[in-house]
Design a protein that fits this description.
The protein is mainly α. It has 2 domains: 1-51, Homeodomain-like (Arc Repressor Mutant, subunit A, Orthogonal Bundle); 61-194. 75% of the residues lie in helices and 0% in strands. The chain has 10 helices and no strands. It is elongated. It starts with 8 loop residues before the first helix and ends with a helix. This is Transcriptional regulator, TetR family. Residues 8-68 form the HTH tetR-type domain. One of its GO terms (molecular function) is DNA-binding transcription factor activity. Residues 31-50 bind DNA. Keywords: DNA-binding.
């Protein structure tokens, strides 16, 4: 039985349809009727589920954060105990996703300005994403570096996340090159956190 407050297939389908239309055309061009058609439901169903376009924007932004952080965690975990490979996969995924997906880029870069009505919903989640991404790194590194200094680990994770974001805002090199350099740095920072203080 589906919980009343949890996601339902109908809500998920509507949000997915809104996401696809937003990536393709921008939120300003998205109409509730088009979302309903893409989701295979009536326009009234969209309004019943979300109340308004603003309600749908809120749900879309929340879902995008969850999707992004989940993908970062999956990239980290896919490489087992290979810290460098996990770091590279997560960093490369983040850089390439931000380059291809305007929703993710808006969240991570805290893009402001412009006329897109969705931006306020996305940018207010920037700190949440940074915190959750850092948390994913801390959890993952902590599993592979038992006994690491937790404060140093937290600082290393926060530093890596903020450096990744800086390369999203002002990219200088190809994604692979940037991901390689940042993964190497991640290994050094995590290794330093794992060493006992002198």
């Amino acid at each position: 039985m589906i919980e009343q407050r949890g996601p339902t297939p109908v809500r998920t389908g509507i949000v997915d349809a809104a996401r696809a239309l937003t990536v393709a055309t921008g939120w300003d061009g998205v109409r509730m009727g088009a979302v309903a058609n893409a989701a295979g439901v009536s326009r009234q169903t969209v309004y019943n589920e979300f109340g308004s376009k603003a309600g749908l924007a809120e749900a879309l932004a929340r879902a995008e954060v969850d999707r992004f952080v989940g993908a970062v965690r999956a990239a980290l975990l896919a490489h087992g105990t290979d810290v460098r490979a996990g770091a590279y996969a997560a960093i490369a995924h983040t850089l390439s996703t931000a380059a291809q997906n305007p929703l993710v880029k808006a969240i991570l870069a805290s893009a402001r300005g412009g006329s897109d009505e969705l931006l306020p919903y996305l940018t207010t989640r920037a700190e949440v994403v940074l915190t959750e991404a850092s948390g994913a790194l801390i959890d993952w590194a902590g599993d592979h570096l038992p006994g690491a200094d937790q404060a140093a680990l937290a600082f290393a994770a926060d530093t890596i996340v903020r450096l990744v974001v800086s390369h999203i805002v002002l990219p200088r090199e190809p994604i692979e090159q940037t991901a390689t350099a940042l993964a190497d740095l991640a290994v050094r920072l995590f290794s330093a956190a794992a060493r006992p203080a002198l």
